[in-house]
Amino acid sequence: MAELHKNLIDGEWVGTEGVENINPSNITEIVGIYARATADETQRAIAAAKAAFPAWSRSGILERHAILSRTSQEMLARKAELGELLSREEGKTLPEGIGEVTRAAQIFDFFAGEVLRLAGETLPSVRPGVGVEVTREPIGVIGIITPWNFPIAIPAWKIAPALAYGNTVVIKPADLVPGSAWAIVDILVRAGLPKGVLNLVMGKGSVVGQAMLDSKDVAAISFTGSVGTGKRVAAASVEHNRKFQLEMGGKNPTIVLDDADLNVAVETVAQSAFFSTGQRCTASSRVIVTHGIHDRFVDALAERVRNLRVGHALGKDTEIGPVVDPSQLRQDTDYIEFGKAEGARLVAGGERVKADTEGYFLQPALFTEATNQMRISREEIFGPVAGVIRVKDYEEALATANDTEFGLSAGIVTTSLKYATHFKRNAEAGMVMVNVPTAGVDFHVPFGGRKGSSYGPREQGKYAAEFFSVVKTAYTAAG
Ligand SMILES: NC(=O)C1=CN([C@@H]2O[C@H](COP(=O)(O)OP(=O)(O)OC[C@H]3O[C@@H](n4cnc5c(N)ncnc54)[C@H](OP(=O)(O)O)[C@@H]3O)[C@@H](O)[C@H]2O)C=CC1
Ligand SMILES: O=C(O)CCC(=O)C(=O)O
Q: What is the rounded distance in angstroms from the CA atom of residue 123 to the CA atom of residue 130?
């Protein structure tokens, strides 16, 4: 019987039974057994974080710097092992898994540095003889709720700034992928984090997540996931007068203009739409192509899509790993049927793939003759499914790109400085990409969207301070 990975509450590993974490590349393989917390245990975790807050919020910057830095170093040293764990539980290919662990380590390193750069401002008051100081303070207990698609990077980019700015944390990772979050917490504890500062409550959103939403002692919630759950987080947080931050869906466009380099266009779109099995909120599922390049581009992309090597996440040649679970697979295949029924043309992929192991393998699907009104163009699929929309010129392409309720990432492939510059200014998205994929972002700069994609301050980079700390303005009369 595999070892039980327990929850961490007030410095103690707790739990007596758990559930199996299944490998989507091989559903007969159990990645590990992970405990599921109850609502009571979640409340104990929140109470522990609250009790640990006064001391941690006043801890020395060197202590915080050293813990985050040691965590980064251990993650880097173990990136092959942790990358394999990630690929086994989520289905990303091994290079993608190792890349994500590396990124998580870089995030801890970045925030270890930010601890040493904490600064405020001093300003003269409008009243002579009075000075003004603006400083940042920790908030309190931060609840972190994360999705399954980036099992180590997303927990890292929420936990690291929360701790760096002096908050205590209760984290609930996605029930499908507890392993990577468990590994981060284990490393942080061994790196010297005092008890109660970080608490791990694995389990179901309806139980553990809901208990966090219902607690008056959670001062802020940082959430990434679906729009539906995001709205619940928002409603509950308003009720408790709590700070919250939401990263939700995307329906990200990539425009391909007549003047694009064909190879760059094909590779950029293949990467944006299908890599990581399309399971990225930054994935591009609307490919908006001007008339002059349309047929050449579609032929070349369809060829690339037919030849994408789908298989076991740890397979040496695999480019596209499995879909994460049966429910996401059903969602993907349902949308492929909606696309066909609404009159789009399936020109490549879309069929289940047989491999040596039993997993949720799907050949990425490419539609042409899509319109921006079809469901495949309006609703987030979160799988390897994309539709090409033909337009006459750049102006129509831009209008189509912006015609969506989302606004996370938007890309353009062009050799024209004029159109690239115009697009950077006029794309209604939080992140704009010129000749690079819409997905796969840097760890040290802000991440987030506009419109229905995001709510609240940006994540990552120095901008994370906006969410994970609160500003105080102090006036002092010289006397
Ligand atoms: N923008 C993004 O990065 C992501 C978007 N999505 C979108 O969401 C769809 C569904 O994915 P899914 O993972 O189910 O997304 P969810 O929004 O359901 O899950 C995200 C997190 O919220 C938790 N949660 C669920 N219900 C509650 C609740 N009532 N209170 C508090 N927390 C809760 C989940 O727990 P549990 O794991 O138990 O469900 C998980 O940890 C995808 O198909 C995709 O469209 C999904 C993942 C990431
Ligand atoms: O594209 C990326 O690098 C990040 C994507 C992401 O955060 C997400 O899909 O949730």
A: 9
Tokens, residue 56: 């941690």
Identity of the amino acid at 416: S
d(CA 318, CA 26): 14
Average pLDDT over residues 433-459: 98
- The residues assigned a catalytic role are 247
**pLDDT value of residue 478:** 81
Residues 322-369 have pLDDT tens digits of: 999 999 999 999 999 999 999 999 999 999 999 999 999 999 999 999
pLDDT exceeds 70 at position 382: yes
Q: How far is the CA of 441 from the centre of ligand 1 (A)?
A: 21
The matching CATH number, chosen from 3.40.605.10, 3.40.50.450, 3.90.550.10, 2.60.40.10, for 4-248+453-477 is 3.40.605.10
> 253-434 belongs to which CATH class?
alpha beta
Give CA angle at 96 (91, 98), nearest 5°: 105
Task: Tell me, using a 6 A CB cutoff, whether residue 281 lines ligand 1.
Answer: yes
Q: Nearest to residue 8, comparing CAs of 198, 208, 193? A: 198
From the number of C-beta atoms within 10 Å of its C-beta (0-12, 13-18, 19+), residue 129 rates as exposed
